[in-house]
Amino acid sequence: MRVRTGLIPFMENVRRVRPILRQSITIAVVGLAISACSSSNEPTRVDFLRGFYGGAVADEPTAANIGRDVLDAGGSAGDAAVAMYFALAVTKPASAGLGAVGACLVYQPREKTVRALDFTSPPNASGSVAIPGAVRGMYAVHAMLGRQPWSQLLGPAERLARFGTAATRSFVSDLEARPDVARDEEFGARVRTAGGGLVGEGDRVVQPALADFIGQIRVSGPAAFYAGPLGERFAEAVGQAGERLDFSEMRAQAPKLGEPRTQPAGHAEAYFLPFDHTAGPWQAARWGALAGRERNGSAGPTTFAPSGTSFVAVDRSGNAVACGLTLNRPFGIGRTAPGTGIFPAAPAEPNMPSGALSPVLVVNHNTDILLLAASGSGAGAPGEVVNVGYKATMERAPLSETFGEAASALVNIVSCPDGMPSQSQSCRMSADPRGPGYAAASLPREGRP
Fold this sequence. Notes:
It is built from 12 helices and 17 strands. β9 and β10 (268-272) form a beta hairpin. The protein is an alpha+beta fold. It has one domain (26-447). The relative contact order is 0.21. Helix content is 29%, strand content 20%. The model is unreliable at 1-43 and 45-49 (pLDDT under 50). The N and C termini lie far apart (47 Å).
């Protein structure tokens, strides 16, 4: 299938903020959700009683709760996605920092469209680091679906970085997997205890330099990072870290839109990323193989890097965003750009995209309903996202029975077998039971347990 792509230049100059609807919606935390910090083998699952106004699922619980709060306040799935990304930049810097790259699928039922957004980037001219793409990428998501002001959505992340947040199991496990990052002068001072060890769950972590960058992006938009003094400061800091980043290449970086690959899913269609450097083409072929339509269950790259993280957001109107983010290796180059609190992304391995570049949506355009939004991370995520999504959608299997075939994968999912928003009572959400993620639901007042 030919992929039609186009640059999205100067997205930071586009503001399509629509009025906030139904501001009086109250926050409802579902008591049936299992704690993301527990050691239970049960999925972090949400079962809905009387309705579903949307939900957010991520590999890290603080970000998921922030996404849910945005939905509770009348925000869209795009608003929740923006807020979750910037929160993850603070709470999961191993994969989702301001230096990250990634890709998303975005569903807008009003326009009857699913769009694929690519904000990965090749190495810069020196091949030293990857050009950051996620900040502009998430601004593009906001331009498509945003209802709430950009500055409002970045506020929670700035506060987390400036005033500190308790280290979650996700943050601690990432740190324990790569303890050498604690030798970084700036970051190490924030993640080492007075006794010289690494912080544990519940220990407070403050990141003032990162807070300054998020604060300026909050006030001035992505232009501050890609075309202003803030970006020049970052490029210079990358040089101080012993790497090279040409600021002119940052200015030229822009997300790309593509027409998703599709496969039939009963009366609906399953959507995948179309870009050859993502897992999408392989996943589309894999879905076709499960359905018995294709003998060859693979296409494009078949080996995927384990680094990255993912999240999903769905709102009451059925809009959905499923994204994957990566620094190409855990904590990117392994040290921050001095004075920024940002880990620059490492160059991507040739022909080995991140397993996090693997979101899937299932949509019925005839009835304008969303059936599935899923994303994953880990080397086995592309196949696991397809397996879980296929079982939930085509076989209507309970989410508790869909996980577990790939040990090296974590999947975040919202499944609505009868369709969202028309049959929202059918919706179920889950973070992968093998990881520290969390599913946070937004419910109407009468739906509270």
